[in-house]
Recover the amino acids of this structure.
């Protein structure tokens, strides 16, 4: 994710997590970890069994969240974490669970 910008410049990412990530507390794990890091954004379950989220904050904090997402909570089995940068949003405060 290095683009010559400051190491801790703000960044926003769109993430899709695949594997056994529904029915195991994955969304609430994500909210807890994101809030610990002071990130803004949201997380939700998808109809296909994946979990989708967007997270925004300092690049190093977002990178830490992604590392934690790869592990997930105890009962999860993460197979894939796909990450794409997306434009920053100024209207996003806090981190929450969203519906479908």
């Amino acid at each position: 994710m290095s683009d010559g910008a400051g190491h801790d410049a703000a960044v926003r990412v769109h993430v899709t997590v695949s594997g056994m990530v529904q029915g195991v507390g994955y969304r609430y794990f994500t909210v807890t970890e994101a809030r610990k890091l002071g990130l803004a954004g949201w997380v939700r379950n998808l109809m296909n069994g994946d979990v989708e989220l967007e997270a925004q904050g300092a690049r190093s904090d977002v990178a830490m969240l992604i590392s934690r997402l790869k592990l997930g909570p105890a009962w999860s089995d993460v197979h894939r974490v796909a990450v794409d940068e997306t434009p920053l949003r100024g209207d996003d405060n806090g981190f929450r669970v969203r519906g479908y």
